[in-house]
């Protein structure tokens, strides 16, 4: 069972990763196969564990103002700024459709 | 056609600091001044849950008759947008903090206040989640300015099942939720400041058939627009289907200027949010009286029962109390609670006057409220305080002035010149004529001048008597007691 081009295309859209070449896809395939070994464990009736922190106490903070007020420092990271606002492009620029972009996936 | 309307409401939690960080929550501050390193999603930062936000969600869940989940979980909802620096929002998708509640609200039938119907909408769930930053679109320069002050502010998302059928019901339900939130203090819920945002899910179908495709309507900025947007979308869908078209499962924005919904630019197709558990936060555990841990630091414990015991009276309870205590009508109680401060004003007047509440309410709702509305004033801004009004009503109650004179005094009081009702009465000589002889003379004069009317009354047409009473009132410039005048006239006419 291989990962389909449709799924790879979907992943490139969503996560903006670039599989770049056949080797990249192969690496993904191998990773999935490796993880699939988990299915050998019988987990019927068992609640999934999603974190080893599940028995830890979730710490609750008091509702006090303790941070903020560091506009200058934050804006140091910005390539472009206007009057203390971060500047971003006008909207999300979606990845072009599979047919329209330059990716090795097209050939697959 | 059966329209089906569900709502997703985001209410900003009223707290000093944000949901997962210690930066301040405040409307209209200098851009990016209320932003911590975590809010800006800088590496090496972690979320730390604000206790106050948890309490606000529990309060709200209890007020909406929900089951509170003693164990709830946090998840990440991924999508890319410039005002979401982390690339994901921390929310509660799998197990939210509260589920399966209900909200009762009232509607006027046919716009008549006297006929109110109670409806209920089921609350699917309430979840805690982060707000995003704000995007200011500058289309002219093809850029967007990002302010992260709002990023990370705590939100309660209240999901209402599709139990509503039109804009009026949706608006009434949201209004009641708003009052509840404000009463609890869990959110100030001011729509104009973005503290209460509503998205509507709308579909139509034929009775007996399965539900139709639904659209989501966003960008509704006020209660008024909510009803309009929902009703427009219902109409649009009906027309589209009757013309043989289909409804797309899409997101539409409400354009308040044009009064219609338009598709939002959806270049990216359906979103895949790739929900995953938030790995940095263990489950949120809440306790009640029975499960209270003995050895834990109190500050770390949220006790549902403790919160339940301290819930204030909800609007529905306050309304019922007002009706029972003062004998006013249910629709009056709605109006009293609908205006901020009006119920308090009413009760303050009651305290200071001998006039019966059933009479006082008329002055509050007809005279005071209509004046305030005409001049776009809030109760707090009223130039006539509850003390002044009570003074005036006392004069009326003691029969020192007539009710029309009282209205004249009220006119003067609105000017806010600092005069007391008694001073105005003296100034304008509005006291009721107490002298019986004087009244009899005036009545006689009116009788003498209205031969035709007198004949009609003597012939049995008693309604004409009211005209004579009116004439006496006019002659005395409102200074005669109509009951007394009627007695005198009747006596004279029977002689």
From TrEMBL, chain A:
It comes from the Eukaryota. Pfam families: GatC. InterPro entries: Asp/Glu-ADT_sf_sub_c (IPR036113), GatC (IPR003837). GO terms for biological process: glutaminyl-tRNAGln biosynthesis via transamidation; mitochondrial translation; regulation of translational fidelity. GO terms for cellular component: glutamyl-tRNA(Gln) amidotransferase complex; mitochondrion. HAMAP family: GatC. This is GATC amidotransferase.
UniProtKB/TrEMBL annotation, chain B:
The keyword ATP-binding applies. Gene3D superfamilies: 1.10.10.410. Keywords: ATP-binding, Ligase, Nucleotide-binding, Protein biosynthesis. The keyword ATP-binding applies. One of its GO terms (cellular component) is mitochondrion. Pfam families: GatB_N, GatB_Yqey. It catalyses: L-aspartyl-tRNA(Asn) + L-glutamine + ATP + H2O = L-asparaginyl-tRNA(Asn) + L-glutamate + ADP + phosphate + 2 H(+); L-glutamyl-tRNA(Gln) + L-glutamine + ATP + H2O = L-glutaminyl-tRNA(Gln) + L-glutamate + ADP + phosphate + H(+). One of its GO terms (biological process) is glutaminyl-tRNAGln biosynthesis via transamidation. GO terms for molecular function: ATP binding; glutaminyl-tRNA synthase (glutamine-hydrolyzing) activity. It comes from the Eukaryota. Residues 344-493 form the Asn/Gln amidotransferase domain. Belongs to the GatB/GatE family. GatB subfamily. HAMAP family: GatB (MF_00121). This is Cytochrome c oxidase assembly factor PET112 homolog.
